[in-house]
UniProtKB/TrEMBL annotation:
Record flagged with keyword Calcium: no
SMART domains attached to this UniProt entry: ANK (SM00248)
Pfam families per the UniProt record, alphabetical: Ank_2 (PF12796)
Keywords of this entry: ANK repeat
Repeat positions for ANK: 78-99, 112-138
InterPro entries documented for this protein: Ankyrin_rpt, Ankyrin_rpt-contain_sf
Protein name as annotated: Uncharacterized protein
PROSITE patterns in alphabetical order: ANK_REP_REGION, ANK_REPEAT
Organism: Prunus yedoensis var. nudiflora
Amino acid sequence: MEIEIIRHGEDEVYEAACSGCVESLNALIEKDPHILIKLALTTETETPLHISALLGHLEFTKTLLTHVPKLAKALNSFRRTPLHLASAGGHKEIVQALLFAYPEACLCRDEKGRIPLHYAAMRGEVEVLKELTHANLDSIYLTVDNGFKETVLHLCVKYNQLECLKFLVQLVRDEGEFLNSKAGSDAGMTILQLAWMRGQIQV
């Protein structure tokens, strides 16, 4: 996951986000109570919340969300929310905190047309998948918004994430049309055909 930080005169907040130091953050807020709001208004790339979500700093993330919950809606230069980054990183408790602040992030697509669920599936983060599908079950049916229109099931096969596939198939086992979807492959393959082609016998 790429990360790009552009400074806006608030280097100390970014440094605190990288280290996850809540004490430093609180000291900066005490010094300037509006520092996070100013950052939220002027930042066009990674916010401190993107950084703490990516690096797995739970308490720092919670502190940021307490002061400026709308940071959960911020998009970085790749159009990813903090939830995209936390989901890819497998940070379950951070995912929970971000979902509480902004549950609609489940459906936000980045510049590659992927939602947070797609990244969790690609990285094999089953516990995060559980949180995301609990927050919005319909997110399972969103395909990657690209030329291939991959389903999350195709992504599990493509990235060889068997446990994620098992979990998702259990959730959608009564949805035969979705399980047999031919979306997600330039050859129009179902997930079964894709698994066979890749020699993934367990799948």
